[in-house]
Amino acid sequence: MVEGEEKFNIFGEISNGTTTNSSSTSSDVYLSTGWPTFTTSFITNIVIGSVIMIIFFFLRIIYRNFYNARLIKSNGLNSPLITSPFQWIIYTITYQMEAIYESRGIDAYMHLQFLYLCIQILSIIMVFGIGILLPINYTSITEETANVVLNTLDTVTVGTIQPNSKRLWAHALSIPIFTMIAFYFYQKTNTIYFEKRIRWMSKHHERNYTVLVREMSRSISNADDMREFFSRFFDSKSILSCHIIYKEAKLRSLWRKHKHVQRSLERVLSESDIKGVPPTRAVGWRPGMFGGKTVDSVEYFTKKLEQVDRELRIAQEDASIKKDLSISQDLEWRVSNITPSNIKKLTNMTSTAGFITFSRMSHASQAAQCLFSKNVEKFKVTPAPEIKNIKWKNMIVPNRSRFFRRIVSSIIFFVIFCFYTIPVTAISAISNIQTLSKVPVLNWLLEVVNLNDTLRGFVEGYLPSLALVLFLALLPLFIKIIIHFNKEDTRTQFYHKVFTVYWAFLVINVFIVVSIAGTVLGILFKMLENLTLKDIATLLGQSLPKQSSFFINYILVQALTSVPIDIVRPIELIAGIIRSSRESSFGQKMKALSHDDPTSLNSIKYARELLIFVITLSYSTLSPLILPFGLLYFLMDFFVSKYNHIYSFCPKYQSGGMIWPLVFNRLCIGLVIYQLTGIGLFVLKTFIPGIVISFLMPFFTLFYWWRNVDKYKKPSSVLSLDICPEEDYFGNEFVKSYEDPVLSIADLEINNNFKNDHNLNHHNLLNNFKV
């Protein structure tokens, strides 16, 4: 450094004089960690993102059935939208949002609406942030800081402004302005959700005529008892059907075995038709290729299916028989059969959950809003989920048991929370080489990274952000394993739990822990000196905005590395290839490739997207430079998500957009976090007007949140009676829709001549095995 030149050091102070040794551990060591680090990270991310997209370009052609599964089902395999190398880009961009709602469902529509909401908010506040706040930060030069060389990324943050400066008025006013902008677009999206949700609940669909009843009395042991109870409140003609969920473990085990054997028979029949050679399988431990005994696979699985079918029907009849120990039974019979094993068996067969299908939507809506017992814990009635959304074996888990399971899982999550703060803090420290270099055993790091600007940028910019992304990418796997213990009764509820827990992990460990750890580590050695409380507050006020450089690099990694990986989906692709390799027919291969549940993928994406929104919004006042990169992330994510919803994802059920209320709650929490961050900034800057203005904002936000929840929660959960279709539904279409699948095995009619004719059309044969 030239003698006499002044530069900012790590603590936002000015260092004068001669050049210092790069290995020095004094507090005046200078290291420019701003623009070189950012430039290196930005270029690295662009290169990696470009490589991933080029790989996707070729993978999309090679594995056409995987990346175009949804469009192949509607447009066919040879559609130009699939075969053209570039037309898919234009088609994705120009595809209308309303068409997504009609053809892809409300869940996909609300996900894209959420991303569009973030794009709108960040686009507008970026005008104020980049146009007004950033120039104010950059030109905050006083007599004390004249002739300072502004060559670090931190000099465009609010940390350059002196405490109690009048320039902070712009930052103070930005908080209510940004809050009002967020309120407007939150309200606009809420209105859109409410309108689409009403349309979804009004459709002629089995779910809208049906309710789920939980925690029924033990006196209700079968569907007849259930119908008799609810006939006291509704006309018996208005109840189309009642279905109880069976608790019998043996019955459900046999049903799963029946499905497995049936699927195996379908596979070997398809293989026989395609290859023209009867498939065989080994009997015993020695494979056929080594001289083991082999049998005809079709004959083997047919006999096995007949055997399992007989066992299943016996179990079905046994479960359907009404178990009654009433006084009409012979006294000797009752006494001799009341044994511990019989009591346990009869108790297990009695379920507390079931479904009622009505002839009108209005009856279902009334049932979902009424209390049927003075004990509020009994006869809990809610709108029914879609059939493929139900986890049948979890439906019979009592609420008390599920409550205990949730407590246990919450304790486990708390332990994991505490554990994760340690490596996250370590990763945050890696991004602050200057501070680490002050530790005697680590001062060699400064010499290493000073060898090359690119190396320094890679170590301080890209590497810590990538390490944090990869480390946190492992979390969803552990979260899903733990939440499985809860026995959630629908897939939607399971993935919503995954979303809420993962979001909490990300906000606490990425945003809060990194902000606090980075801020404290940045001034740790200064705080150990004899400083006054005012000096420490000043240092914190300068250090907090500087964490934006870490988060800019983090957002870049997410936007240009993580988001492109979302369109490639390598793990799902590999799993789909392995599954499809076991299939023979084209239809089954397509089904195996598109097996993954989009709700599972989107629950993770929602949490990550909300984190980026919270980070960008919270630092929008402190460091407006973060806004373009937050906007870049959501633009990239919007395109990738839109492509996946249009081309790839094949959802088996719809939740009705029920994740949006959870997202809205966390959007409001993110707004409060932004306002609390502003309060902390103005406290550290000792700017009283900013403290007063910011202090009121969280209360306005909480009131706004409460009013919206109060306004939309009930009307969006149950269809109001004044818009319910008035006509009765007649027909048998919905009568058995919600019957427990363990009772829904059709009659087996196996053609005895097929043993000698393996070329029999397997589609006709398999119609006799349908579940």
Automatic annotation (TrEMBL):
Q: Where is the CSC1/OSCA1-like 7TM region domain?
A: 405-682
This protein's record includes keyword Metal-binding: no
Residues annotated as domain CSC1/OSCA1-like N-terminal transmembrane: 38-187
Its subcellular locations are: Membrane
The record, for InterPro entries, names: Csc1-like, CSC1/OSCA1-like_7TM, CSC1/OSCA1-like_cyt, CSC1/OSCA1-like_N
Keyword Transport annotated? yes
Q: Where is the CSC1/OSCA1-like cytosolic domain?
A: 209-394
Q: Which PANTHER family match?
A: CSC1_OSCA1-LIKE 7TM REGION DOMAIN-CONTAINING PROTEIN, PROBABLE MEMBRANE PROTEIN DUF221-RELATED
Q: Which family does it belong to?
A: Belongs to the CSC1 (TC 1.A.17) family.
Q: What name goes with this protein?
A: Uncharacterized protein
